[in-house]
Amino acid sequence: MTTSDLHDTTVSWPIRLRRAWSSHPRLAMGVRSAIAAALAWAVAQILPGPGDEFPYYAPMGAVIATTFTVAGSVRESIQTVGAIALGGTIAILIDLVAPESSPLTVGVVVALGVLAGGWRRLGGAGTWVPISALFTLVIGQGDAFYVGAYAGLVFLGAAIGILINLAFPPLPLAPLRHTLSRVRRTVRDQLGDLAEMLEKDEPLDPQEWEKHERDLTPQRGELRAALTTARESRRGNVRARRYSQDFEALARDAQAVDRLAQHVAELSDLLATGEHSQVHEPSLGPSLRPHAGRVLRGMESLVGLADSGKAEERTDELQRVREALEELTAETDRARRAESPGGGVLAAAALVTATRRCLDELDILIEGTRAELSEEPPNPGPPAGEAHGHTDD
Questions:
Q1: Which is more confident, 19 or 201?
Q2: CA–CA distance from 340 to each of 277, 288, 333, 335, 344 (Å)?
């Protein structure tokens, strides 16, 4: 939610609060974690035996299990309980060999725990293996009862956390939407920088190109991770069907922007290596550089318009960019016919191909948005005032 949403008098306060809640899914996860931990603590208090001695392990399990996805809650709970049991087993075996705790036994237990924690099936929960082994050796004195209480109470809390997630299933579309917008802005800015550099009268130095190149790889990784999390959140989620149209639209846009970022990175590399002042035969040269600059400037505008609701403006801009690309293609063909085949002309053709691939992905974004505006939703939508993109926890 933007600041303007908070001051928009046409939108009621309940809807504005819901949008703020939707835009920050960690708030919802915090509430679910708090409820699950409180319930786990209360249940552990009334259990005989280990519940009286180690009640704090139950809320710890509840916190572990309360994640952004139902499927993730189940998976991480199983992995964590397994890691705790594995670490406890290591400590018990070491205690049988050397009953007295010492710096040596502590070091051996931690070393074995770290090695065992690398087991692929444990995933990120592998870090619990050495912790559990150390706790069992030092606090539990290598007692199997301690391991059972430790793992059992964590499992109890995790089960409560899973039930809370099932009762109030998260659907984290907001992180995907925010990541998508951030990557799209970065791609837009990169296209703008490339266009600005091509609009100059003379080619830039290699160092100047390097200053304006953005590494899109990390953001593409974040986008893919957010898409994977959103896709996983639909498993076992009773809310998933209601918002399936929102998810499909976001997934399509995310994949298109990911490919667009890849093509823009390739285009940037081609320009940085073939269109600078120290190249004997530039990729574009003074005759093609202005045409390429107009295409990139138009694509920059398209990336910005892809997130707006002005369908006619997007369509008109897309048509102008296509016309500019055709002019660049025609000029490149004329240059190829006028000169003997050389590195410069071939590089220009490669640039045209990379630019066309970028435009193809932009076409997917534009067409997809147009389809969203023209089609009726297959499922009942959210209450009036809850715009697309403000439905997730």
A1: 201
A2: 22, 17, 12, 9, 10
